[in-house]
Structure formats: structure tokens, C-alpha cells
Amino acid sequence: MIRHMVNLKERSYPICITTSFDDFGKTFLSLRTGKKLLIVTDENVDKYYSDICSKELENNGFEVSRHVLAPGEQHKNLEAVYGIYQQLVEYKFDRTDTLVALGGGVVGDITGFAAATYMRGINFVQVPTTLLSQADSSVGGKTGVDFNGHKNVIGAFYQPKLVFINVNTIKTLPKREVSAGLAEVIKHGLILDEEYCYYINENAEKIFNYDENVLQYLAKKNCAIKGSVVEEDEKENELRAILNFGHTIGHAVETVQNFSLLHGECVSIGIAGAFRLSLYLGAVNEAAVENVKKMLLKLELPVSLPGLDVEKVYSHIFYDKKVKDNKLKFVLPRRIGEVFQCNIEDSELIKKVLFDLSK
Questions:
Q1: pTM
Q2: Is 129 annotated as a binding residue?
Q3: What are the 3-dehydroquinate synthase N-terminal domain coordinates in residue numbering (predicted)?
Q4: Is 51 assigned a ligand-binding role in the annotation?
Q5: What is the CB neighbour count within 10 angstroms for residue 308?
Q6: 17-73 pLDDT, tens per residue?
Q7: Is residue 251 marked as binding?
Q8: How many domains, in total, are found in the chain?
Q9: Does 263 show up as a binding residue in the annotation?
Q10: Which of 2, 99, 243, 246 could lock 271 by a disulfide, CB 3.0 to 4.6 Å apart?
Q11: Rg (CA), the chain
Q12: Of residues 63, 78, 19, 71, the one with CA closest to residue 44
């Protein structure tokens, strides 16, 4: 088992990276929590991993209950959180007890928000089962739900007690979802580690063949990069905003397309857009733009969306949480492995980029 610590003083927690659930119960015991656990999962993940996780926990003395959500971003709302609250109250959970998020980013976000707000905060453990959640959303303490079609506008920063990553869970995913997860994986390299980008590019075939050594390295590297940023800026006052690279356009595309595209696919389109915007500002050259496009395409990710509604996407960008005083703040590349933040008020320039993405 590989262990990595996210160091946030009294909110510090371990990330455990392994290839099975064999040590899940023992690892949980080390947290010294109460004995009641509620596993929150969705209908897709439930049939694969709920039983084995429950058994591991019960064998180590825990009382385990289960709450199964409908899958998909369209169900990431306050109603889902309400259902969790009902079960926690019914089973008389107190602050020493724990919510366990078993699933992808949607399950993690919903469960984390429920944990942050039930009794003003109870224990919370992330068990991410998708590449996207293993690479990104399970680490850092961002929780929340969508509201009236706007992504993640209700939420809280709330750190887990533990992140337990079994890299082999991604074997049950459709290939499209693996590709979508790779958008967040390569994002970390694009913002902070050029060498990591090229490692991902060179090992794409091994990733798609579920090479355990490569998958564990990816998980460790992602957690180390994201963890280092979160340690410096836990609540996104400045530096942590760079983790939103590709998300300003990506979230708007995701919303306008009514979540018919996967989150990582939209982030990939957003990354392509960020490089084009940086090109027009003179910060990167055409070669860098083409190089990144080739990397994304090799990972079977989209770099454009023919027929994209430019005006609608532009309008939705202003719901982004980085908008201040009606000014759009973008995270843009200076080169592969380095980014900068800047406000852009030129609406025609932004629309020009969106038009490029629509072809």
C-alpha cells in the first residue's frame, strides 16, 4: 500500500493507494471513529463494491448501513442530500459516526456535503471508484450539489478523514469514462509538471490496459500534485484556482449540453479553449496548442464540439465561481507545466475562442 499525507494541521488525512479492498477495514480502524457507518453509493457502483466493502468493515467491528443514490450528475441536488439526512436521523448517527462515499465524483460531492452539514459536521471517508474521482475530486475537500441547472453553486469545503483508493475499481468502467478521468489527470501535468504530461502521453496504452503499476503511479502523482496545492491554499483564495484549469469553459459547456457530455470531456474541451485563448494573447505558440491537442486526442478526449452554441456558453461562463465584479478570471497556460491567472474583459476574444471550439 502506498500512503500519502495531505498536511492541513488538525484536518490532515492519509491517502491510501492499493490494488484491492483487503486492508480497507483495518485502515478504517486506525481512524478511531464511532462504530456506525453509512455507505453512500449509486446504483452502478453498488452491485460491484458495496458488499465487499461492507464485509471488510463488518469483519472489523463496524455496524454498516447503505444508502443507494440514482446515478448521474442530474441527480446531484439537494433532494439527494435530504435522503441521506433522513437515514442518518433514522439510524441515530452522531458526530463520532461516519459517512463513506463509495463511487465517483458525484457520490463524493453529495456525501461530503451531507457530512459537512449534518450535525454541523460528521466524519467523512472517500472511496473513489472512477479515475476522475481518484485523480481529482476525492482529494481537497470540495463538496457540493448543483442548483437550478448551475453546477456546484451550493457546497462547502470539508476535508475527509481518509481517502482509500483501489486503482482496480476503474476496470469496471466503460472506456469512455476512463478517458474522461484522464482529462483531470493530464490537467495536473499541464499546470505544474511538464514531465508528468509526457509520462501520461507515453503510457496511454498501459493506462487503457489497466497496468497496476502505472495506475498506482498516476494516483500517487495526482494526489501529490493536488495535495501540495491544497496544503498551500485550502479554500481557493488564490493558488488553488489553478486546479480549475479548463473548467471555466468546461463547466459552461457541461451545463449548456445538459450534462450529456461527461465532466472530463468538457474539461478537455475547456483545456483546448484555454490554450487557444492563451495563443491569441501571445502567451503560447501554435506548436504548444497542437501538441496539447494531440495529447488529448491520444487519450480519446474531445478538443472541440461541432455545433456548440457560442452565445449560450458565453452566458453560462458568468455563473463560474471565479467571476468577481462581473469580470472573468481565466487560468491560462504560459507553457506546458506552467499557468497564470488573468482577468479577461474582451467578450469578442472569448467568443472567438468558443467559435473555434464549435467547428
A1: 0.92
A2: yes
A3: 68-179
A4: no
A5: 19
A6: 999 999 999 999 999 999 999 999 999 999 999 999 999 999 999 999 999 999 999
A7: no
A8: 2
A9: yes
A10: 246
A11: 20
A12: 71
